[in-house]
Amino acid sequence: MRHTLKFKFIFSYLIISLFTLVLLNTYGHSAIYNKLVEYEKAKLYEEAELIAREYVPNIRILDSVDVTLLKHFSALETLTNMRVWIVSPSGNIQMDSNLSNSCHGKNINQYDSSFLSYQSIVGKHPKGLLDDEMISVIYPITESLNTSGYLVLMSPANALDSSATNYIDSIVICGFIILSISFVIFIYLYRHSVMPLRAMTTAVRAYADGHFDYQMEKMPCQDQAELAHAICYLAEQMNGLNEYQKNFIANVSHDFRSPLTSIKGYTEALADGTIPAEMQEKYFNIILFETERLTKLTGNLLELNQLDHGSLVLEQDNFDINDALKKTSASFEQRCIKKQVSLDLIFEQKELFAYGDAGRIQQVIQNLLDNAIKFSPQDSNIQIHTLQKNQKIFVSIKDHGIGIPKDSQKKIWNRFYKTDISRGKDKTGTGLGLSITKEIIEAHGENINVISTEGVGTEFIFTLPAAKNQ
């Protein structure tokens, strides 16, 4: 089961809060209590050493009750809540600082024979003598390596437990304050992390449903703003792709429908005898012309599909670009004669070797020459020029035709695009030639540019790498 980020935040916050409280009231209380016990034991032992050194200089003091010493110990208990026993070697309690509930005269060994054998005891006391749990320190008083008595200093254990509880309560209060502050921080983080993610998710769903005009909320953080910008950019690209797909289908449908309609109409007319025998050759030629248009369009579409999917394999090698231009120009000889257009080949070198796919570059030259002849007026010339600068080969094909409007010069590389002034002159074009040309040049890692003035002419310039040394 998947949970939202909001649920994970809240669940984590509650778990941390609960764990903190449980930890403080268990391990924390125990740790503080143990520290207090160790501190209390050290204090009792230090006090026992002081008493043994200052007030019990010899064993004779243990033979009788010293009233002054008893009053001193009683005052000490009142001030520090520390009870003092002076015990004989046999276990008799000869002095007790607690006057109200004195154990004077009683023998400890009769109640707990092991009590005096300990150095310190936590939570134990001679049963029957004391009711409360005590922290006890037993300090032997020795003389000539013989034990002449014992000092027993005791402090109530429940007082330390209360102190530990008070400490924990203070820490818990601080913990609640910290948790409150962390909750505010949690709300801040939630508003600046989860809510922007939700906003972006909503926007992505809107874009996925085709609502590309949906406006995404402004993001509070730089990283989120960059991600939101990337999503908006992706949406723009999707919108453009969607529009392109619609236009592509519409253009393909139109370019297929027109020749198919002509072929169907003339074929039906020939079949039912509507067209007389002496006119049939003319209409057979029209059918052949339209069939060639369909063949050319289909070939261009298949080629574009190769380019789109990156399956175009270039067979690159050194080749003479001047020779490729000569051969390709020769294939247009009949069209040039018919239209009275001359091709002027201007080569700075007799041979100029470039590196690339010769077959694909000839296809580029064919497309550019086809356009140049198509849009050139009668009795004009087309200049084909090559030169080398450093490691680049520049090829220029310049005509003196109708030119391309300035606002259309960036669009001519789009598929199926035809300028308004070219539609009446371009009866056989598919609007794909320049797209294919640009794709081929860019597949070589090079560039192609256009310089055109309406009514003056157009020049296409593309580059190729110079031949590699073999």
Average pLDDT across residues? 81
The total count of helices amounts to 9
Looking at the structure, what is the overall shape? rod-shaped
Evaluate the radius of gyration: 52 Å
SS-based class: alpha+beta
Could you spell the SSE succession in H and E letters?
A: HHEEEEEHHHEHHEEHEEHEE
How far apart are the termini?
A: 64 Å
As residue ranges, the low-confidence spans are none
- Helicity range: 40-55%
Characterize this entry briefly.
It contains nine helices and twelve strands. With 470 residues, the protein is α+β, with helices and mostly antiparallel strands.
Write the SSE topology.
Blueprint: H1 5-54, H2 67-80, E1 83-87, E2 93-96, E3 120-122, E4 134-143, E5 146-156, H3 157-208, H4 222-271, H5 280-308, E6 317-320, H6 321-330, H7 333-339, E7 341-347, E8 353-356, H8 358-374, E9 380-389, E10 392-399, H9 433-443, E11 448-453, E12 457-465
Helix pairs in contact: 1-3, 3-4, 4-5, 5-9, 6-8, 8-9
Detailed description of the structure:
This protein has 470 residues and is an alpha+beta fold. It has nine helices and twelve strands. The protein has a five-stranded antiparallel β-sheet with strand order 2-1-5-4-3. A five-stranded mixed β-sheet has the order 7-9-10-12-11. Helix 5 runs parallel beside helix 9 and helix 8 packs antiparallel against helix 9. The radius of gyration is 52 Å and the shape is rod-shaped.
List keywords for this structure.
470 residues; alpha+beta; 5-stranded antiparallel sheet; 5-stranded mixed sheet; 51% helix
